[in-house]
Amino acid sequence: MSDSYLWAKTVHILAVISWMAGLFYLPRLFVYHAEKGRASAELSETFKVMEHRLLKAIMRPAGLVAVLSGLWLIWAGGWYGPLPVWLWLKLAAVGGMVIYHGVLERHAVRFRNDSEGASGRYFRILNEVPTLLLVGIVIFVVVKPF
Q1: Tens-digit pLDDT profile for residues 29-70
Q2: How far is CA 60 from CA 54, 95, 105, 135, in A?
Q3: How far apart are CA 7 and CA 12, in angstroms?
Q4: Domain count, the chain
Q5: Are the C-beta atoms of residues 8 and 69 closer than 8 Å to each other?
Q6: How many CB atoms are located within 10 Å of the residue 90 CB?
Q7: Which pTM was predicted?
Q8: DSSP assignment string, the chain
Q9: How far is CA 109 from CA 5, 43, 66, 130, in A?
Q10: Based on the number of CB atoms within 10 Å of its own CB, is 81 exposed (0-12), middle (13-18) or buried (19 or more)?
Q11: Are 38 and 44 within 8 A, CB to CB?
Q12: Each residue of 105-135: pLDDT tens digit?
């Protein structure tokens, strides 16, 4: 493995960690926003700022870097021929993670527009999705069961 491949893998891992932190934390903010923010306009505005900054400064850049560096690793690692099943499954789970990120973006817009109607319980349940996807991704990459 070349040094550039190892550096790209390092960047990929760091970006994934940062992205996952945001994917875990933003729904927790939504729980509090849904449960406490509706009672206080001032608190709601604070949540809106926190949610926007988390998306803008951490989640969007980290997600983009994670996906781009992952694609570069596939290309640089010579995986551009027929892909093994485990890699297809990992890519499908990453696609799920990207869709999940988009769902969180839509909820953030609804909160920003004061039109979000989902409950704190909904966001608690939604918060389990990235955990399930992450478990699958790690198993596919480390164990390569298929």
Answers
A1: 999 999 998 889 999 999 999 999 999 999 999 999 999 999
A2: 9, 15, 10, 22
A3: 9
A4: 1
A5: yes
A6: 21
A7: 0.94
A8: --HHHHHHHHHHHHHHHHHHHHHHHHHHHHHHIIIIITT-HHHHHHHHHHHHHIIIIIIHHHHHHHHHHHHHHHHHTTTTSSPPHHHHHHHHHHHHHHHHHHHHHHHHHHHHTT-----HHHHHHHTTHHHHHHHHHHHHHHT---
A9: 37, 17, 23, 20
A10: exposed
A11: yes
A12: 999 999 999 999 999 999 999 999 999 999 9
* Helices 41-53, 3-32: crossing angle, 10 deg rounding: 170
Domain that holds residue 16: 3-142
Tokens of 31: 């729980």
